[in-house]
Specification:
Strand content: 15-25%
Largest sheet: 7 strands, parallel
Structural class: alpha/beta
Strand order of the largest sheet: 3-2-1-4-5-6-7
Bound molecules: uridine-diphosphate-N-acetylglucosamine, uridine-5'-diphosphate
Distance between the termini: 40 Å
């Protein structure tokens, strides 16, 4: 009987086989936004890197348009067969295997993932198993809501990462309390970088306000897509009715930009025609990044259950009503930039009335736009160690 060669059989990559290159894993709409400033920074510094797209998001308005709007090259690798997978496990498994294949061929020393979607869990796990360095952008965020798949993902990712890039002190504290294995760095948030870098471009290029017939400060914007909200008919109804009632009470038309998951649920619950007739709400498919930035920055009020959109509203000094009972982004609550309303109709109306008249001079808590530069600098140091 021969000796088992562990490196052969388990396909473990030896340290000396790894190359000084960074793999960036993207695959969802918010992940593309989050990584855009980092990819630009890597390109600017001629740092060897490549991008793997997991295929989790694939509709043009959730994917291609973001690469175009954020002036990003097409990812070098794209995992196939993911959109057909319908369960969390199946989707994560397909991405895990696809990412592992690329990593085994390319052998980068460092793999970056960002946020809390299944894409990032798959990326972090694939890299961890291959003993590559794992960097988690937006580490340490917690909602303490164990219903959320994102809360499961971010906790696991944080515990298998080597470099933890927290957006602020809150994230750092969570990580310290949980005694994570990796090193923690407070870097600020690359969503701020992306927003600041693209604001003037959005102003110059986007004609979204004209297209939707809106004038500045005279409308609201709504997004909703959280699994625990839209997959449950009473919550989906509650948030739509609540926003419609608030729109009527404030005489503020609201533009609802629909995420494909929400579109699908409205259809499945037989609510499409009902939603179209809700007073005060105009429904449209989700738009690209520049249009969205321009619409949010000029709006009077934002209704959302999105993490990224809560932050963007805060960055652009637009008050937000969050259609959740909790938020990871507690900093936005401190100075009145954001109010938690859940999906109860009356709570939404109450929060909207308060938010509409709120003082809009809060400080922006997520850094000053240099998060990507800091993250890349830390990555370069880690590659040299
Ligand atoms: C995912 C993330 C969530 C993140 C959101 C950003 C997880 C567990 N959830 O949720 O944290 O906030 O992305 O938008 O990873 N669909 C399309 N086209 C697309 C993408 C999705 O039609 O491009 C439809 C499909 O029917 C799909 C459903 O939306 O089954 C849900 O998509 P999925 O990626 O599983 O979850 P999201 O709700 O997008
Ligand atoms: N976004 C967009 N068009 C839309 C809605 C959202 O460009 O119609 C962008 C938004 O600017 C933010 C990101 O999508 O940067 C947030 O993604 P999402 O709400 O899907 O996910 P989350 O942040 O909740 O994970």
């Amino acid at each position: 009987m021969g000796t088992v060669n562990m490196f052969e059989e388990k396909k473990v990559i030896r340290k000396d086989e790894l190359v000084d290159e960074i793999a960036v894993v993207v695959g969802t709409r918010p992940g593309i936004v989050m990584f855009a400033p980092i990819i630009h920074e890597l390109r600017k510094g001629n740092v060897p890197h490549f991008c793997i797209h997991t295929g989790q998001h694939y509709s043009p308005n959730m994917d291609y348009e973001f690469f175009k709007d954020l002036n990003l090259p097409v990812p070098e690798f794209r995992v196939s067969g993911v959109s057909e997978r319908k369960t969390h496990g199946g989707q994560t498994a397909a991405m895990l295997e696809g990412i592992e294949n690329v990593l085994m061929n390319k052998k980068p020393r460092l793999v970056l993932v960002g946020g809390d979607a299944n894409t990032n869990l798959a990326g972090a796990l694939a890299a961890r198993k291959l003993r590559m360095l794992v960097g988690h952008v937006e580490a340490g965020e917690r909602s303490f809501d164990w219903r959320m798949p994102e809360e499961h993902n971010r906790r696991i990712i944080d515990h298998i990462s080597d470099l933890l890039f927290a957006t602020g002190e809150n994230g750092k504290e969570h990580l310290l309390k949980e005694c994570v294995q990796g090193r923690i760095f407070v870097t600020g948030n690359t969503i701020v970088d992306a927003s600041l870098q693209h604001f003037e471009i959005a102003r110059a290029k986007s004609d979204a306000l004209e297209r939707f017939g809106l004038s500045p400060s005279s409308y609201g914007v709504m997004t909703t897509h959280r699994e625990e909200n839209v997959d449950f008919e009473p919550s989906l109804r509650g948030s739509l009715e609540g926003v419609s009632m608030a729109a009527e009470a404030l005489k503020l038309p609201v533009l609802l930009l629909v995420h494909p998951r929400t579109q699908k649920r409205l259809r499945e619950f037989g609510l499409e025609a009902w939603a179209q007739k809700l007073p005060g709400i105009k429904i449209h498919d989700a738009v690209g990044y520049l249009d969205f930035l321009s619409l949010v920055a000029s709006s009077a009020l934002v209704f959302t259950d999105s993490g990224g959109v809560q932050q963007e509203a805060c960055i652009h000094h637009v008050p937000a009503v969050t259609l959740r009972e909790n938020t990871e982004w507690v900093e936005t609550l401190e100075h009145g930039a954001n109010r938690l309303a859940g999906t109860d109709r009356e709570s939404i109306v109450k929060a909207a009335k308060e938010a509409y008249v709120a003082e809009r001079s809060w400080p922006v808590p997520f850094g000053n736009g240099d998060a990507a530069a800091r993250i890349v600098e830390i990555c370069l140091r880690a590659l040299k160690e």
